[in-house]
Design goal:
Layout lengths: L2 H13 L7 E4 L9 H16 L3 E6 L11 H12 L15 E2 L4 H13 L3 E4 L3 H7 L6 E2 L2 E2 L18 E4 L5 E6 L3 E6 H5 L3 E3 L7 H11 L4 E5 L6 H10 L6 E5 L1 E3 L15 H6 L4 H10 L12 H8 L2 H10 L3 E3 L2
Parallel strand pairs: 1-2, 2-3, 11-12, 13-14
Antiparallel strand pairs: 4-7, 5-6, 7-10, 8-9
Helix pairs in contact: 1-4, 2-10, 7-8
């Protein structure tokens, strides 16, 4: 059996137990405690999926082991349960009700080999210093860093044997899609992104790659996440096509910011949800605050996640409220 068939067989095996209908997911990284911004994204993903009558899965993106914190996973589970965001048992998981990427390296290996059979990837020995030296024009920089100049694209197999990373060979064509919240978005991968990394020099797979592999195998139909990830979506759509998966609908929801307009994050010391729980905060108060930030309910509303679901009523109403909300919201 060829490497290509191995991935195809894996895809068929993992998806055979999935039914039809909407499938959503929440995919946190257990690198610290959740904060309000994280839970806002989780709540929006849960609402979208439940309003559509779908299955909602939980997946931990824990591949970068040095950054994982031992107590984060349990803390995240407790936060979601406290808020009333229930999830369905993940397909194929015997021990846990959720999926952990750290247990799925063999799947990512097979997917990378599948792309290799299609000659859609190449190995690259360039360091960041090499790329910085080759890139000089301002337009060769993006929000995420330098655009790879294609130095190793044409190396022979013998020359590429000592590669540091594996990169995806981007096409010249544009990627265009319609986000359920933000509307039409267009990006040229060649001009705006460049050949992007799928596996790092230390063997860790990149987020852009594994998130697509997992969404394909889990049968995800709707991806609800923060607007900060909108720019990375064209890369993922390109990978969906190359890996033979259906492209899901994307919902990029507003970001919660502090009083200074800075996005809430673990890095800037945003207060954790676990600290609110331990201080005796009511989950219904937080649900009301998060929902009111995008006008799903009136200011001051106190209600559970299930009551909020019933209050919203329809998926169209939910979509309209998100479309009307600003891209960044000053919250608390």
């Amino acid at each position: 059996m060829s490497k290509k068939l191995k991935f195809v067989a894996l895809l068929e095996k993992e998806r055979e137990s999935l039914g039809a209908g909407v499938i959503g997911r929440y995919a946190p990284s257990p690198t610290g405690h959740l904060h309000r911004g994280n839970l806002f994204a989780a709540l929006m993903a849960w609402l979208q999926c439940r309003l559509a009558g779908g299955q909602f899965f939980l997946r931990f993106e824990d591949l970068d082991r040095p950054r994982v914190r031992s107590n984060s996973l349990d803390s995240i589970l407790q936060d979601l349960q406290w808020l009333g965001l229930n999830w369905d048992a993940a397909p194929g998981e015997l021990e846990d009700s959720f999926i952990s990427q750290s247990k799925r390296k063999f799947i990512y290996d097979a997917a990378l080999a599948y792309l290799g059979d299609q000659q859609k990837i190449f190995s690259c020995r360039c360091s960041r210093k090499d790329i910085a030296f080759a890139v000089s024009a301002p337009h060769q920089r993006t929000q995420e860093g330098l655009i790879y100049p294609g130095t190793c694209r044409s190396l022979s197999k013998n020359e590429s044997f000592k590669a540091c990373v594996w990169r995806y060979r981007v096409p010249e064509s544009d990627v265009v899609f319609t986000d359920e919240v933000s509307g039409i978005y267009r990006q040229s991968l060649a001009r705006d992104v460049g050949d992007f990394v799928l596996r790092r020099a230390d063997g860790v797979y990149a987020y852009q790659f594994v998130v697509v592999v997992d969404d394909i195998l889990m049968g995800v139909t709707d991806v609800v996440r923060g607007a900060d990830l909108l720019e990375s979506t064209p890369r993922q759509i390109e990978l969906f096509h190359s890996l033979g998966g259906g492209v899901p609908r994307f919902w990029h929801v507003p970001l919660l910011c502090d009083a200074h307009g800075v996005r809430l994050s673990k890095r800037n010391g945003t207060k954790s949800i676990s600290s609110l729980r331990e201080a005796g905060e009511r989950a219904e108060v937080l649900v009301g605050q998060l929902a009111a930030s995008v006008s799903l309910v009136a200011e001051g509303a106190v209600l559970s996640a299930q009551e909020l679901l019933e209050e919203i009523g329809t998926l169209n109403h939910f979509r309209q409220k998100l479309q009307q909300a600003p891209g960044a919201i000053n919250h608390l």
